[in-house]
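User: Please fill in residues for this 210-position structure.
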């Protein structure tokens, strides 16, 4: 994840996070299927990889796959999972976007699932992501747009934060998110919602680096 003072929260949450089950497996499968075309045979970076669930599923299709998270405990659990189910293409690293860009490594595809709304500096991170993509590279995000969520969720969030069930998050709308991605130098090629039936406020966006 990109610069954020909340690493202690995610380190605390990591063991519980690893035990969580997907609420909408079909929606997650649709998101993975959309990513597959842009991962197959390519050099991939995943930001905010958490405990490695997505990386372990997608990395076998890639040429190389670097999964990162700025929370050390998240990466530690991902490493335990990788040891049980090795994937030769997959590397794990504790890092945020800003820490990676100075190395000069570039990727065909960058993935960011459920993390852009957690960034204090969204616009700066999007510019860094663009730098890490090869010309014509693809950025795929799935992002909570809190301003588009049902009112009850928006009202409950401050309480959930007090009891450490929810982290700080930016109140984005889909329009805000699209504007930030375009402003950072991307062309949006695809926008989908993958939830099964329920109101969805997590758009999946595929964007091309200019």
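Assistant: Residues filled in for all 210 positions:
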């Amino acid at each position: 994840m990109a610069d954020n003072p909340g690493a202690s929260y995610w380190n605390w949450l990591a063991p519980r996070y690893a035990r969580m089950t997907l609420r909408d497996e079909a929606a997650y499968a649709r998101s993975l299927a959309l990513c597959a075309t842009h991962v197959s045979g390519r050099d991939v970076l995943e930001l905010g990889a958490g405990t490695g669930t997505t990386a372990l599923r997608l990395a076998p299709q890639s040429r190389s796959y670097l999964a990162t998270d700025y929370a050390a405990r998240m990466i530690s659990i991902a490493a335990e999972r990788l040891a049980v189910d090795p994937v030769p293409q997959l590397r794990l690293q504790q890092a945020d976007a800003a820490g990676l860009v100075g190395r000069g490594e570039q990727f065909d595809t960058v993935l960011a699932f459920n993390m852009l709304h957690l960034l204090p500096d969204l616009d700066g991170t999007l510019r860094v992501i663009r730098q890490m993509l090869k010309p014509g590279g693809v950025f795929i995000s799935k992002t909570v747009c809190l301003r588009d969520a049902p009112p009850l969720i928006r009202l409950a969030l401050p309480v959930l934060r007090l009891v450490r069930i929810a982290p700080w998050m930016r109140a984005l709308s889909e329009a805000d998110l699209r504007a930030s991605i375009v402003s950072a130098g991307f062309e949006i090629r695809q926008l989908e919602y993958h939830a099964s039936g329920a109101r969805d406020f997590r758009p999946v966006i595929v964007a091309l680096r200019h």
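For context: Strands lie at 43-47, 64-69, 90-94, 107-113, 133-142, 186-192, 204-209.
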